[in-house]
Amino acid sequence: MGFSEAEQRAMRRALTLAASPGVPLGPNPRVGCVLLADDGSTVAEGHHRGAGTAHAEADALARAGERARGTTAVVTLEPCNHTGRTGPCARALVEAGVRRVVFAQGDANPVAVGGADTLRAAGVEVEEGLLAGEARALNRTWTFAVEHARPFVTWKFATTLDGRSAAADGTSRWVSGRAARIDTHRLRALADTMLVGTATVEVDDPALTVRDEHDVPVADQPLRAVMGLRDLDPGRRVLDGQAPTVLLRTRDPHEALADLRARDRQHVFLEGGPTLAAAFLRAGLVDEVVAYVAPVLLGAGTSAVADLGITTISAALRPMVTDVTVLEPATPDEQPNVRLTMTPDRSAAAAGHTEEH
């Protein structure tokens, strides 16, 4: 049947609703819903506001009341088919007398899948795929975690022009400028987990919190995950209570991500040292690379990534650059930094064993 102009407008509005500010990231997807009358006018709108709150469809139906009967529900995600903290949205749409449902992205979550079939079985007209790409982009990491049964991994590092993350004496503050550090906190806030190795905690004592431009911790903090077999010094800042912390007693990146997935984590921000980064790269478990490059030369010191087992240029990992942004200095005495965002070439990922962290 295809999609009407009114349905296309409504889907764009639903996507805007889904992206409303203040909605916490994860563990649920962001979803918006618009109910349309036969003449294309909007009857009611709704969006999901976080785990335990009404789903977008239920929110819109509650606002519409009896006016929902005979409407078209335009939803960014396939209505769910299961009972969790809230009831199944597919059944709620049927009971409300909704005539037609248009959704963007199919729900691959094995717990919630089947909403479209339930709707069709009840005689509701169903169309899918309207602005599906935009809907997937909105819930990029949630979609990845559901489809791959593990969290999406962003590896972030700061480096000099010659690829050093620290000087020969071990000092690394600050390789990047203040603008880059502010930008890093912006990206941290998009993840639900910060991950480092025990060596990084021991040597650098990072707080691993998200802070604003005034260096004040924000209200909603990601989980701080520390990976390795060593016990942590109880005086380290990751144990200061400013954010939840978990110690993952493993050296295996696959095991670490499985543990985090079991905790409903969807997006890991990997900020560990070069050894941990190399372990994830060798395992093919880096999905995005964010590199801050500073106009600095050291000539010696710690490399940004440890040995990957690559011995010839033809075997080099060559991530695809998806964005280049010049970060203007935050103070007059600094120089600009460059942020490179890249997608790894998985076909070239080297296999190897993990190291101790």
Structure description:
With 357 residues, the protein is α/β, with parallel strands linked by helices. Helices cover 25% and strands 22% of the residues. The chain has helices at 5-18, 56-64, 89-95, 115-121, 132-138, 140-148, 178-188, 198-204, 253-262, 274-282; strands at 32-36, 42-47, 72-77, 100-105, 125-128, 152-159, 164-166, 193-197, 223-227, 245-248, 267-270, 288-293, 302-303, 320-327, 337-343.
Q: Would you kindly provide a brief summary of this structure?
A:
By secondary structure, this protein is an alpha/beta fold. It contains ten helices and 15 strands. It is 25% helix and 22% strand.
Order of helices and strands: HEEHEHEHEHHEEHEHEEHEHEEEE
Distance between the termini: 56 Å
Largest sheet: 8 strands, mixed
Low-confidence stretches: 349-357
Radius of gyration over all CA atoms, rounded: 23 Å
Trace the largest sheet across and list its strands: 10-9-8-11-6-12-15-14
What fraction, in percent, of the residue positions are helical? 25-40%
Which shape, going by the Cα principal axes? elongated
Number of strands: 15
Structural class assignment: alpha/beta
Count the helices. How many? 10
What share of the residues does DSSP label as strand, in percent? 15-25%
Mean pLDDT value: 92
Keywords for this entry:
alpha/beta; 10 helices; elongated
List the SSEs and their pairings.
Blueprint (H helix, E strand, L loop, with lengths): L4 H14 L13 E5 L5 E6 L8 H9 L7 E6 L11 H7 L4 E6 L9 H7 L3 E4 L3 H7 L1 H9 L3 E8 L4 E3 L11 H11 L4 E5 H7 L18 E5 L17 E4 L4 H10 L4 E4 L3 H9 L5 E6 L8 E2 L16 E8 L9 E7 L14
Parallel strand pairs: 3-4, 4-5, 6-11, 6-12, 8-9, 8-11, 9-10
Antiparallel strand pairs: 1-2, 1-3, 7-13, 12-15, 14-15
